[in-house]
Amino acid sequence: MEMRSPDADITGLIRAWREDAPGALDRLMEATYPSMKDIAMQRLRNERAGHTLQCTALVNEACLRLIRHPNGREWKDRTHFFAFAARVMRGILVDYGRARRTAKRDAGQLRVALYSRPGEGAMDADVVDLNDALDDLEKLNAVQSRVVELRYFGGLSIEEAAEALDLSLSTVKRDWLLAKTWLRRRLLEGRAAIDQ
Amino acid sequence: MRPLTSEEWGRVRALFEGALAVAAPKRQSWINQHAPDKPVASEVYELISCYEQWPDFLEESANLGLVAGDVPVSPLVGRRLGPWRLEREIGRGGMGVVWEAVRDDQTFQQRVAIKILSAGLQSSSGIARFVEERQILANLSHPGIARLLDGGSMEDGSPYLVMEYVEGERLDEWLAHSPSLGERLRVFLSICPAVEYAHRHLIVHGDLKPANIMVTPDGEAMLLDFGVAKLLDTGSQGLTQTRTRLFSPRFASPEQVRGQPVTTAADVHALGVLLYLMLTERQPYASGSEDTLEVMRAICSDEPPTPSTAPVPWRKALRGELEAIMLQCLRKDPEERYRSVHALSEDIAAWRDGGPVRAHRPGWVQRARKLVRRNRALSGAIMLAVLSMIGGSGVAFWQAHQARQERQRAEVRFQQVKRLAHSVLFDLHDAIKDLPGSTAARRLLVQEALEYLRELEATGGNNRELKSELAAAYMRVGDVQTSLGRASTGDSAAAMQSLLNARRLAVSAALANPGEERQMQQLREIDIALSDVYRQQGDTKTRRELRAEVDKISAGLAARHPQDRKLRFLALWDRAWTLGEGGRAEGGKATENLGAWQNALSAARDVLALEPGEPEPIRYLARCYRNLGDAYKNTGDRASALESYRQALAIDDKRASAEPASAQPKMDLYFDLVASGWEHHDAGHEQAAVVEFERAARLLRQICASDPDDFFARLELAKLLITAAPSWQHFRREAEVIDRLREALGYLEWARARDPNNLDARLHHGWALVELGDAWARRARLGGLQASDRWREAAEDYTKSLAALSGIPAGSRFDDGVGAGPLIERATSQLALCRSRLVNGR
Fold first, then answer.
1. Using alpha carbons only, what angle is made at residue B457 by residues B455 and B458, rounded to the nearest 5 degrees?
2. Which of B298, B481, B529, B591 has CA 20 to 30 A from B343's CA?
3. Distance between CA atoms of B459 and B399, rounded to whole angstroms?
4. In this predicted complex, what is the ipTM?
C-alpha cells in the first residue's frame, strides 16, 4: 500500500492547529491554500450570471482532494478540516467578490443566497457585505461569528460545529440563533440604507 | 442609536433564548424585568421580532451566484406565467434569461425551463428572431433536443418559451469531474445524432458550445438554446446569409467570423472545437486568451496545437487517428471538413471499435509528432540516457584496449570503475538526491551501478586500487539502500549485502597494504555503516564485534598520528560510543562512559577551533552534547543531562534554519528533541515532554511530506508516536492516543510492505498494535454500552500484534534493549483477559 504522505502531513497540521500550536495555522494555510484556491477559482471561473454554486461543495471537494485517510475512520479530523476550510473558503470567496466589485460594473457581483422559500421570495447579499457584517459581529462576539462561518460557509451541523469549537451543543445552538438573527437585521438595515 | 458594547451584547446573549421561550404577549414585560438597561432590552426585543419573521434565515449553507449589476432579489421570483410559476434563474444567454419553473395546477406537477427575452433585446429584430426560434423548435422532436412545450408573451410584451426541463449538468460542469476518455467519446457521440437530425430538417444550430449542452444523469447529451439557429432556404442552393453575428466567438467557424455564408459545415467545425476541448481540455485557438478579437483572429489563421501534446492522461490514444478526426473538423476551408455530422460520428465510432478511420492526416501532423517525441524530456529517460552513455563509452574503451597488455587492461577497468563510481554514484546521485521524491530514481541508479560493479569485480583480478574503489562504490550503494539520518529506500537485506561486499573488498585491500591510512579509514566507515544495519536487525552480538573493530582501527590511527586533532577526536568518539553501548547493557560503567563523552566533547571543540564554522565538526559537536546528555542521564544527573540536550538543541536548531531544504539537520534536531522529551518525561514533567515530542513529530512529518519514499523518517515517526504515547495519554484524551497509534500503524504497514525483511519495522508494528490494544482495553474498563465492542477491538489488536511479532528471532534486541519477548508476553496475557471479559459480558 502506498502511503500518501501529504495527507498525513495535513492531518498532522490540522491537529497542531486544533491544539493551538504556535504557527500551526500559517503552516496549514501554506499547505492547503493553493489547492483550495484552485478548486474555488476553477468553479468560479466557469460561473456565469444566474448560475449558482454551493460553498459546501467547494469545501467537500477540498476535503476529498486534501485528506484521504488510510483507514477512513478519522471523522473528527474531517470535521476539523471542514472548520478550517470554511474559513479559507470564506476568504477566497470574499477576495473574489472584492475583485469583481472593483472590476467593471457588468462583471457582476458574487452574491450569496441568504434565504429562499418558494412562493415567498428570496434574499441574497453581496458576499463582501456579508463578510463585513461577520467582521462586525466578531467584534461583539467572536464565537458567534465563527459559528456562522462554520455553519454557513462550511456546511457543518450544529453538532459538528460544537465539536470543532469544543463547546457544548446548547451554547452553539444559542449563539447560532442569535448570530443569524443579528445578521439578518444588519443586512436588512444595510439594504434599506442603499434603497434610500 | 450607538452600537452595543460587547459587555452589553453579552447580556443580550444571556436573555435572548429566555425571552424567546416566553409567550409573545408577556415578552415585553419579561424583557424589561430582566434587562434594566434600555439599550439591551430594546435590542433583545428587536432581535426577537426579527427572528420570528425569518426563522429559516441562513439555514441553508452558502449558495453562491454571480449576478450582473446589483439587483438584490429578482422581482420575477414567484411570478406566474400562465400555469407556470418561476422558481429560480438558471441561466443567461445571448437571447434571454432562463428560469426554472413549475406548473402550479392542482392536476399535475411539471418542471420546465422558461426562456424570457431579456429586456435590453426587445427590439423588433430581436423579437422577430425569438418568434422564429419558437417556430423552429416547435418543429423539432428528437430525444437529444430539449422540446418546446409552450410559448406566450408577458404583460410587458416580452415573449417567452416554455421548454422541457433537462435534469443534469452543463457539459462544462460535467467535464470538470474528469470523466474518462471513453465517457467523453460516448457523450460526444450522443450529441451528433441531435445535430444530424436538425440538419436533416434544414436547421443549422450555429451556436453549439458546452453551455448549450446538458449531460443527463444517464450520460446522454441534450441540446438547448437554438439561439441563432436559422432556417435553411432550400431554394438558394442550401446556403443563406447570416443576418446577425450572434455566435459565441470561441466556437465559431472561420466563415462565421468573416460573416460569410453559413452551412452545416459550421456545426461540423463547432463539433470539432467541442471534441478538441473535451479530449484535450484546452481550446484549439488562442487558448488562455480572453480577448475576443484575438480569438477571432486565431480561428481564421492559426492551426490548433497537436492534440496529443495535451497534458491529459490519454494523450497517447489521441495520437494518430483521433487527432486526424479532430483536425479534419477544424479545417479552415468548409469543403475540407467532414461532409456531414454522420460521417464524423461514424469515424469516431470506427476508431472506438477498432475499425478503419477515413480522416486523412496531412504530413505536418507526423512532423509535429516527431518534434514532440524529441522534446519529451522525462527525468528518468535522461538518466537512462546518461547511464547508457557512461556504460557505452566504457564498453568502447574496453574493446579498443582488449588486445593490449594486462597492465593496460587493469588501467581500463580502473577507469571504468572510477567513471562509474564518480559519475553514477557520486555526481549523478548527488545531483538528484535532494530533489523531492528522488528515491525511485536513486534506486534505478543503484541497480545499474550494481550490475557494473559485479562485472568489474569478476574481471578485476587482484588490483588493490580497484578493490578500494569498488569498496567505496559498494558502500555508497549500501548507503543509499539504507542509511541512518538520510532518506533511504529501506531495503535492509540488499543494503547488508552491499556493505558486506564493501567490507570484504576493503579488508582485502587493507591486508595487501597494512600501513595505508586511507584504507583503514574506509574500513572504519564501512564497519560503522554495517553496525547500524545490524542494530536495525537486532543482532547485538555482531554489532558489538564491529564496534570493537571500529574502536581498534581509530585508536591505531590516532596512535600513529598523535598531532592529528581529527584522528584524536574520532578515536575518542568511537571509544565513547563503544563504551556507551556496554554501559547501557551492563549499567556499571556509567561513570566511565560519562568521562569518555566529556573527553570526546573537548576533542570536538579542539577540531572546531581548528576549522571554525565547518559544518561537519559543528554537527559532531552537537552529537557529542546529545550523547553526553545520555551519559549524564545514566549517572542520574538529570539537571546536567537536560543542560547538555539544550546545548545540542541550540546547535541543531541553528543548523536546521540555515539549511531549510536539507533533511539531516532536521533529523538531528529530531533526535535532540526526543532525548530531551524523554528526560522531561522521566523527571515527571509531562507538559514539557509533550511540547518536545509534538515538535519532534512535526519535524518528521515535514520530512515525510517532502519525500514520499523516505523509509527511515516514517519508521522514526512511528516509533516516536508509539513510545511517546504514555506522555500524550497523561494529558490528552484516550481518543487522541488512539489517533496517534493509528497514524503510527499507517507508517508501519507501509514500511513493512516496503521492506518485509526489516525486523525493526516488524517489531514496532507489533508494538504499536499492543499499545493500541492497551488503549482500547483502558477504554473498555470504563464500562458503558460500548465496553464489549472495545474489548473486542482490543482483542483484535492483540491478535494482530502476535502475528506481527511472530517472525522475530527470540534473541533479537533493538534500541534500548527492547525485544519481541516481553511484547509477546504482554499481548498474550492481555488477550486472555479480553477473552474472559467478552465471555463474562455475554
1. 65
2. B298
3. 14
4. 0.79
Asked if A174 and B17 touch (Cβ cutoff 8 Å), the reply is yes
Unique residue bearing C-alpha cell 494529558? B731
How far does the CA of residue A29 sit from the closest CA of chain B (Å)?
14
Measured CA to CA, the distance from residue B263 to residue B337 in angstroms comes to: 12
Interface of A with B in 51-110 (CB under 8 A): 51-56, 70-71, 73-74, 76-77, 93, 100, 105-106, 108-110
DSSP lists the bridge partners of residue A124 as: A113
Phi-psi region of A151 (alpha: psi -120 to 50; beta: other; left: phi over 0): alpha
CB of B631 closer than 8 Å to CB of B590: yes
Beta bridge partners of B65: A52, A111
Instruction: Write the DSSP symbol of residue B51.
Output: H
Q: Which residues contact B569 (CB under 8 A, 6 or more apart)?
A: B600, B603, B604, B606, B607, B620
Q: Helices B363-375 and B321-329 sit at what angle, rounded to 10 degrees?
A: 120
Question: A-chain residues within 8 Å CB-CB of B704?
Answer: 5, 8-9
The one-letter code for the residue type at B45 is Y
Is the pLDDT score of B372 beyond 50?
Answer: no
Report long-range pairs for A127-135 (Cβ below 8 Å, ≥24 apart). Answer: A127/A93, A127/A94, A127/A96, A127/A97, A127/B64, A128/A94, A128/A97, A128/A98, A128/A101, A129/A187, A129/A190, A130/A183, A130/A187, A131/A90, A131/A94, A131/A97, A133/A183, A133/A186, A133/A187, A133/A190, A134/A90, A134/A183
CA–CA min distance A35, chain B (Å): 15
- Residue B107 has phi, psi (to 5 degrees) of -65, -55
Q: What is the pLDDT of residues A106-123, one digit of tens each?
A: 556 677 777 655 444 556
Chain CA centroid to CA B330, Å: 37
N residues, chain A:
196
- Tens of pLDDT, residue by residue over A28-74, are 877 778 777 877 777 776 655 555 667 777 777 777 667 655 444 45
pLDDT for the residue numbered A155: 80
Nearby residues of B789 by Cβ (< 8 Å), 6 or more positions away: none
> Are A52 and B697 a contacting pair at CB < 8 A?
no
Contact assignment for A48 to B211 by CB distance below 8 Å: yes
Task: Give B61's DSSP letter.
Answer: P
If DSSP codes are grouped into helix, strand and coil, which group holds residue B437? coil
- The question of whether B37 is a catalytic residue gets the answer no
Number of residues written out for chain B: 842
Q: How far apart are CA B387 and CA B406, in angstroms?
A: 27
**B788: number of Cβ within 10 Å:** 15
> Could you give the CA distance from residue B18 to residue A168 in angstroms, rounded to a whole number?
18
* Sequence-ordered list of residues with C-beta below 8 angstroms from that of B140, at least 6 positions apart, any chain: B147, B148, B197, B198, B201, B203, B226
Top-confidence residue, B709 or A139? A139
Burial zone of B16 (CB within 10 Å; 0-12 exposed, 13-18 middle, 19+ buried): buried
Residue-level pLDDT at B654: 92
Distance separating alpha carbons of residues B8 and B10, to the nearest angstrom: 5
Q: Is B285 helix (H, G, I), strand (E, B) or coil?
A: coil
| DSSP secondary structure of B640-695 | HHHHHHHHHHHHHHHHHHH-TT-HHHHHHHHHHHHHHHHHHHHTT-HHHHHHHHHH
Give per-residue pLDDT as tens, B7-31.
888 888 888 888 888 877 788 888 8
Assess A116–B contact: CB distance below 8 Å, yes or no.
Answer: yes
Q: d(Cα B445, Cα A147) in Å, to the nearest integer?
A: 54
**B791 or B467, higher pLDDT:** B791
- Rounded average pLDDT over B637-666: 88
A–B: how many Cβ contacts below 8 A?
219
**DSSP secondary structure letter of residue B262:** B
**Helix or strand run (H / E) with residue B80:** strand B80-81
C-alpha cell at B345: 460520428
